[in-house]
Design brief:
The protein has nine helices and no strands. By secondary structure, it is mostly helical. Helix 6 packs antiparallel against helix 7.
């Protein structure tokens, strides 16, 4: 009974740490985008789309090839996610009865083992869905970015709206790709949960520390200076 209590305390605490970190990260991205890698990349993608659409005939091949590379990255993650989901489903339906030998501490019942595998399966299915949405937005952007909007209309306001719409599509594709990658990250602690709540709890803290150094930037360069002086609203800067 004492080993089961570890699952009831350590697992929710580890998940709470990861959820709290991502809530804090979301706040930083919305309020201080130039201090996060996600925010700075979103601002740079807006400038990149604007530069590519200035001369469609010259930059068309480059822009489409770049978006195609992003589609290939999303396709790879989506294929990996659905393959791992199938593997987890096979393991869940297998008839092996000696699974308790893999546990270090914690609940060793068959029901708890099924719950752990179901959580991992849910992570991979979410990752698959998010990467499919990323492919969707990148595919739309690969067509829209080559629209000769300057020949279609002389209205500068219309030009600005067109560029912003394409930039928003590219940014949303990148956001879905990043979220799909986060779902893979979330699967690591859940996988270690198979071996007990203690490895899972430790991995949550290690993962949060690692993600902090990957998500937060300490460099204040040209992009930060330009975006701080820009009058564009924060939501438009991030392509939301």
């Amino acid at each position: 009974m004492e080993e089961k209590v570890l699952d009831y305390y350590l697992v929710p605490l580890g998940l709470a740490v990861m959820v709290a970190y991502h809530v804090w990260l979301f706040y930083r991205i919305v309020k201080h985008p130039t201090k996060t890698v996600v925010g700075i990349n979103a601002i740079n993608r807006r400038y990149w789309v604007r530069a590519m659409m200035e001369d469609v005939s010259k930059n068309g091949v480059l822009s489409v090839q770049t978006l195609r590379n992003n589609i290939m990255a999303s396709t790879l993650l989506a294929s990996t996610a659905i393959m791992l989901s199938s593997l987890i489903a096979v393991l869940m339906t297998s008839g092996s009865k000696d699974r308790s030998a893999f546990f270090v501490f914690g609940d060793r019942t068959e029901f708890s083992f099924s719950v752990k595998f179901f959580c991992i399966l849910a992570c991979f299915l979410v990752a698959f869905f998010l990467n499919v949405q990323s492919i969707r937005f990148y595919s739309h952007a690969s067509i829209l970015i080559n629209v000769p909007f300057k020949k279609m209309s002389q209205d500068r306001h219309h030009h600005q709206l067109t560029v912003e719409y394409v930039a928003r599509s590219v940014n949303r594709g990148s956001y879905f790709w990043s979220l799909g990658l986060r779902a893979f990250y979330f699967s690591f602690p859940l996988f270690l949960w198979i071996f007990g709540p203690i490895p899972m709890f430790i991995s949550c803290f290690v993962l949060v520390v690692m993600l902090y150094f990957l998500d937060v930037t300490f460099d204040f360069g040209w992009v930060a200076g330009v975006s701080d002086d820009d009058e564009t609203p924060k939501d438009e800067e991030l392509g939301m």
